[in-house]
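Q: Convert this sequence to structure tokens.
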Amino acid sequence: MSQPHVAIVGATGAVGIEMLRCLERRNFPVGKLTLLASARSAGKKLTFRGEEHTIQELTPDSFAGVNIALFSAGGGISRDFAPHAVQAGAVVVDNSSAFRMDDTVPLVVPEINAADAKNHRGIIANPNCSTAIALMALYPLHQAFGVKRVFASTYQAVSGTGAQAIEELAAQSRAWASEARAWDDAKLSTPPQVYPHQIAFNALPHVDSFMDSGYTKEEMKMENEGRKIMHHPAFKASVTCVRVPVFRSHSIAISAEFEKPITAARSPLISPAATTVPLAASGKIVPWTTGSPSGWSVTSSSKAPPSTRSRSPSCWCKWENGSPRMARMRLIFADIEGILDSPKR
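A:
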């Protein structure tokens, strides 16, 4: 289908709006566009390719004639409405965690396991942001040396929480600056609304809810989702996730252990799909967040003698590549005909 009918569920959210921009930037051949959101957003307008489109209220009957439905409105909405979209004949690309570990739903990072998408039954799941970022660096190494386990720390931007979190960080930063406070007087009197503690000038090692194991749900996603995406059931990951006062772009520091010794001559240091950006001042390749172009990844690996261990910091612009709520739209761009034509089993 050369010009599919595309629907965006959660179109007025931070990521929904970025989805719209992404479709426009990539000149995706949208034949018809339907923008869906909650009742309170119905009637608002968004511009796509110079034309205004009116937001419609999301209902079970919203998907008549839709070929691709991009969901970015949370797990509850996905569980309630994705089946209606599939029943109407659409292929759903879901950003939430609702279907990721469902054995009947492919969980796809297109640079790694795009072929899995062909086995969909109407829904294709998008992995967690940190999982996608980490695996883009790890998978080429896994193919060469066999990854056994990783120890990782993530530094996750507030955009992963959504538009309200972005505004809370901005508001807290403005409040601190407007009062001309000293550098060591960063605690604000206004209570936070989105996070349990102030996020400005802070770091919160609490992303998602804690489990009985002591890990949070977010921290377990890299192991659980990594196993499914890489088809590697023995993969292990110990992860600490920290929310940091950065607007967009997550970062991860990874220490990995492999089955075979790693040598520079054989090591594919970065994924072919990634883009390295050298730090001009030192000439070294290092990751950073501010100023990284949308959709670019930055990875680097430390120099070390041949061993079975490797350290790899990684930084991605989360909106287009690593977002927990951003559709892996490249799998659609890469093989739209193949996915739409795949039989729903």
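The two ends are 20 Å apart (CA to CA).
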